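Researcher: We're teaching a course module on how sequence relates to structure. For the next exercise, students receive a sequence and then see the predicted structure as tokens, so they can try to spot secondary structure elements on their own. Here is the exercise chain.
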Amino acid sequence: MIRIDGSLYFGSVDYVQKEMARLVREDSKHLIIIAKGINFMDISGVHLLEAEILNGKKVGREVRVCSLKGTVLDEIQSMTSFQSVLKYHLSKNSKEAIAGMLMEIDKEQCRHCPARIFNECTNFPVHHRSPKLL
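Model: And here is the predicted structure for the students to work with:
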């Protein structure tokens, strides 16, 4: 999960793209971009998010964008490019994004995960270790 705070426009996309590349592991299968802190987005910002989605697909990573402010969402919905990729990868909030991602993951992998950091994890199987015999 990555949260973007500030405007996502032509003057900031290069920096944001570099920071995302630095923060996201290459083998990550899922990425949620929390956009609650974005207060303005122009076409360059939309292109950046769509590039993250498309590049993620190329390497087998599902990317979701969640929690866009209403005013920002209204503005970008009027853009022609919004009609292509981004609108299919939006979630209303992080809970919806997490739930959507968890529906797609390998439940057997969850069985061995000790973290259980999301509320939704409680619905997944748990690996029970057999007691050690002395």
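Model: If you want an answer key for the exercise: The mean pLDDT is 87. The first helix runs from residue 13 to 23.
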